[in-house]
Amino acid sequence: MPQHTAGAPLSEDAILKILARHFPATHPSLLLGRGDDCAILKAEQALCVSSDLFLEDVHFRRAYFSPEDLGHKALAVNISDVAACGGRPLGFTLGLGLPRDVDVPWLEAFFGSMAALAGKYRMVLAGGDLSRADRLHISVTVWGEAISAGAPFLLRGGSLPGDSLFLVGLPGLARVGLQELEAQGRAALAQWPAACAAHLRPEPQVDAGLMLARLGLNSRPPALMDLSDGLIRDLPRLLGHTGELCEGGEGRRNRLGASLLLPQGLLHPEVVRHALEQGKNPVHEALLGGEDYCLLGSCAPDILPILHTAIPGFHSIGVITDSGSIDCNNENLDELHGFDHFAAEDA
Amino acid sequence: MPQHTAGAPLSEDAILKILARHFPATHPSLLLGRGDDCAILKAEQALCVSSDLFLEDVHFRRAYFSPEDLGHKALAVNISDVAACGGRPLGFTLGLGLPRDVDVPWLEAFFGSMAALAGKYRMVLAGGDLSRADRLHISVTVWGEAISAGAPFLLRGGSLPGDSLFLVGLPGLARVGLQELEAQGRAALAQWPAACAAHLRPEPQVDAGLMLARLGLNSRPPALMDLSDGLIRDLPRLLGHTGELCEGGEGRRNRLGASLLLPQGLLHPEVVRHALEQGKNPVHEALLGGEDYCLLGSCAPDILPILHTAIPGFHSIGVITDSGSIDCNNENLDELHGFDHFAAEDA
Asked: What is the DSSP string of B247-291?
């Protein structure tokens, strides 16, 4: 057991020993675990891979994120990308830049919470890198496999006019949590418990993604993505209007649109209450809300009934059109914009 | 083409368009490239995977690293981990936290240099994440495959007493470069060109790693790792005395040792000159030198002649013993310690 007391400086070896107690080093998907230059993955079938940064004072503040919250969320938002491909998460690597005030109790709480989420999905920590840093810095790369050998991953493209649009989970709650945590710190948990939980401890929709992939075996696979920047910013990506990491460009030739029906009654009560207290439109607030890690997708309308039955939290929210624009409850939304890390700070 | 001028704020989409011009989005090893929630790798055989952080003012300073140097080194040090497993690099993901002063010319230079190195090894950028950050932050996850289906990756373990120890490349040069760049900035390039180049633009030893893996097909595979923290700190890892990420613990039961022969005449002239100018022992300085990204390994002595012939930069430097300790040129080195990120700053 480590000999350190709270606040004492930590050696790299001491940190690695704490980590080793929380994360098993072997896994059926690994030929070689941590400790060498690389980990070695069995990889007998296709793998989906995603990387995310999670940086202090950019993506989170330690003023209201506990170490348990951080350990959970840093991994959860990455697992969500695997879920959005209909994949089964297998493993991850962790890059961790630690400020000097991080001590043993902090690391125990952080690793413990991350290990609990990894264990829930039977994922292995396959490697990573430790460093000093001024601010807490977490980078995760995650990978997963398809539900069975040869089964498809679910992609963003492929929607057709007439397809049904759906969500698994509901948008807007995490943004309310963010706003109230920024304003009040953790005192916000008393008045906005669901919203704060949505922001601090999002739950990736792995089971729903796997269920959607299973359906894709017998019919046209659903289009699927996760909501990280808000429905109003992410929906155009599902429609192929804009692309992340390199698919941008001349997508405007694509004339897919969407007509949403999102009645206020469908929204979480905390989202409605928060918007009304601020004199804002609850539906607009829900559409703008980022970091929900809901799944957003489209499918042929004939499989809607089975999805409603099979997937908890499944909601039909409209149809794919050929209009090239997006409306919600008969209001055109082309002027409503979601979150851009760079635009937000440069404005 | 982007419309931005130097210093103008950059949107995320503008950054992604620059990136897209430098990095092709398709690759024989990818079923799906950038732009979706995950990239999808074909993965018909085992993959080796590694992640590294590369953080401003921890791992580098922009005072003397040009954007071209940074784009090269951030990827090179990750490729080196694949080389150290005898693997062929295939692809990588890139997490990039950008301060506000990063502009279009900076990004063009950074991406251009990274893309040149990726192109040299035919690697694909499969995805990643962009964010604002106070300081430049680069995290890379890299993967590769074995030289042929079913061929082994080369691991750190497996040395036997009597095996020959070898290096590909020579240690100490990058540390001289670091010290002089810290002292003089880029003016150091005039007086210490090889040392500065070794620190700013290390070349991963991919061809040597593949050649060693090829030899491993017909005989006991060599043990192999790359030198990132200095020979004196990394050699105990090859011997199994200490482990990174979770293999630490009770390794002292392992009684492997090493007897090195590292004549001063073998060292790079800039290493010798630098040590002598400072009144230090050139061999000690070489043993302490970190970030060399040489390969360090051991093999049965009977394959030494073919390795000498086949691998440029190959040097025998001693033998594996059963003494449990390390000596060099008949001097015991158990008191000499290499670099620890955490110990170094906390001391």
From this structure: --SSGGG---EEEE---GGGS-HHHHHHHHHTT--HHHHHHH---
Does B127 sit within 8 Å of A51, measured CB to CB? Answer: yes
Contact A133 B59 (CB under 8 A): no
The two three-digit tokens of residue A22, written as one number: 């929380």
Q: Which of B247, B128, B44, B28 is nearest to A142 (CA)?
A: B128
Q: Which run of H or E residues covers position B125?
A: strand B124-132
Interface size between A and B, measured as CB pairs under 8 A = 284
Chain A nearest-CA distance from B123, in A, is 15
Contact between residue B288 and residue B336 where contact means Cβ atoms under 8 Å apart: yes
Lowest mean pLDDT among A117-121, A136-140, A230-234: A230-234
Instruction: Check the CA dihedral A279-A284-A286-A288 and report its sign.
Output: negative
Interface test with A, best of B246, B296, B339 (most A CBs within 10 A): B246
Q: What is the pLDDT of residues B84-97, one digit of tens each?
A: 999 999 999 999 99
Read off the pLDDT of residues B115-140 as tens digits, 9 standing for 90 and up: 999 999 999 999 999 999 999 999 99
Which of A26, A242, A246 to substitute to test the interface with B, most B CBs within 10 Å?
Answer: A246
Average pLDDT over residues A244-257: 53
How confident is the model at residue A152, as a pLDDT? Answer: 87
Task: Check A46 against B37: CB less than 8 A apart.
Answer: no
Closest CA of chain A from B244, distance in Å? 5
* Mutation to test the B interface, candidates A1, A36, A142, most B Cβ within 10 Å: A36
Look over chain A and give the mean of its residue pLDDT values, rounded to a whole number: 90
d(CA B292, CA B175): 8
Please report the sign of the dihedral spanned by the C-alpha atoms of residue B45, residue A36, residue A98, residue B180. Answer: negative
* Res. B327: pLDDT tops 80: yes
Q: 3-state class of B179 per DSSP?
A: helix
B163 within 8 A of B301, measured Cβ to Cβ? yes
pTM: 0.91
Q: To the nearest whole number, what is the mean pLDDT of chain B? A: 90
Q: Which residue of A has its CA nearest to B345?
A: A132
Q: Is the pLDDT of residue B279 over 90?
A: yes
pLDDT, tens digit, 9 for 90 and up, residues A101-125: 999 999 999 999 999 999 999 999 9
Residue B8 reports pLDDT greater than 90 = no
Three-state DSSP at A172 gives coil
Q: What is the radius of gyration, based on Cα positions, of chain B?
A: 21
Query: Which residues of chain B have a CB within 8 Å of the CB of A295?
Result: none
pLDDT band for position B11 (50/70/90)?
A: confident
| Nearest residue on chain A to B244, alpha-carbon basis | A35
- Which of A20, A31, A45 has its CB closest to that of B46? A31
Task: Judge whether residue B245 has pLDDT over 50.
Answer: no
Residues 6+ apart with CB under 8 A from A136: A55, A56, A62, A70, A97, A98, A99, A102
Helices vs strands, H then E, count in chain A: 12, 13
Kindly identify which residue of chain A lies nearest to residue B143, measuring between CA atoms. Answer: A38
- Reported residue count of chain B is 347
